[in-house]
Amino acid sequence: MRLFFLLFLLIFFPTEETAWVHPEPSKMEIYVNLWRKELLLMKDGTVIKRYPISAGTSDTPTPIGDFRVVQKSAEWGSGFGSRWLGLNVPFGIYGIHGTNKPHLIGRYVSHGCIRMRNRDVEDLYDRVSLNTPVRVDGPILGKEELNYRILVRGSMGSLVQLVQNRLLAGGYYAGPPHGIFDDATEQAVKRYQKENGLNVTGQIHFADLVSLGIVE
């Protein structure tokens, strides 16, 4: 009887040492390496899958930075292949999707999205959920051989976002780093240029990137 009573206490009134522990759910992450044109699926920090990809062209580079999967859809259309994983890029609609031209995988051919073979994106789609972190890593200016282009009002992309972050840190810009070169960004650029002895144009030239410490 005493043994039964002790078992009853342990089951229904567990001590701190015997309390049931629920394991943390596995953490899935996506890492995109634009240099290698490769997408890695990681679980708890360990690579579990590798997929070849295509990235953006010189004119339409793939955004770099940290994002999340905010949309999952099937059958967006032949050009998008069989699956779509939308990312929360603040300056446009970008995502990871399939393709109807699998022979172009491994090249810089997209309009900024990350293309995969249909069978690969279907496999990835089934493994990740909404809010999965996505880190896209690559050259700041897009393709490594890309010639730098001046940033002006209306420009959009990761480089604009990086400039805004630097201006924000320096106290020249007070808006959100959304990657859109708007009037507030232009005025912040002018203030920075004036205080740092640069040509006051309101545009970002290569010399401005050097001054901001973005490139050497």
Write structural notes for this entry.
By secondary structure, the protein is α/β, with parallel strands linked by helices. The protein folds into two domains: about 30-135, L,D-transpeptidase catalytic domain-like; about 160-210, no CATH class. The chain is built from five helices and ten strands. It has helices at about 1-10, 120-125, 160-170, 185-195, 205-210, and strands at about 30-35, 40-45, 45-50, 55, 65-75, 85, 95, 110, 115, 135. The strands form two sheets. It has an eight-stranded mixed β-sheet with strand order 3-2-1-10-5-6-7-9, with helices on one face. A hairpin with a 2-residue loop joins strand 2 and strand 3. Mean pLDDT is about 85; it is low at about 1-20.
The overall strand count is: 10
Distance between the termini: 79 Å
**CATH architecture type of the largest domain:** Beta Barrel
* Proportion of residues in extended strands: 15-25%
Whole-number average pLDDT? 86
- The CATH topology of the largest domain is given as L,D-transpeptidase catalytic domain-like
Approximately how much helix is present in the residues? 10-25%
Domain tally: 2
Give the class-level CATH name of the largest domain.
Answer: Mainly Beta
The name of the CATH superfamily of the largest domain reads L,D-transpeptidase catalytic domain-like
- Order of the strands making up the biggest sheet: 3-2-1-10-5-6-7-9
The description of the largest β-sheet is: 8 strands, mixed
Which radius of gyration do the C-alpha atoms yield?
A: 24 Å
Structural class assignment: alpha/beta
> What is the H/E order?
HEEEEEEEEEHEHHH
- The 3D shape can be described as elongated
Number of continuous helical runs: 5
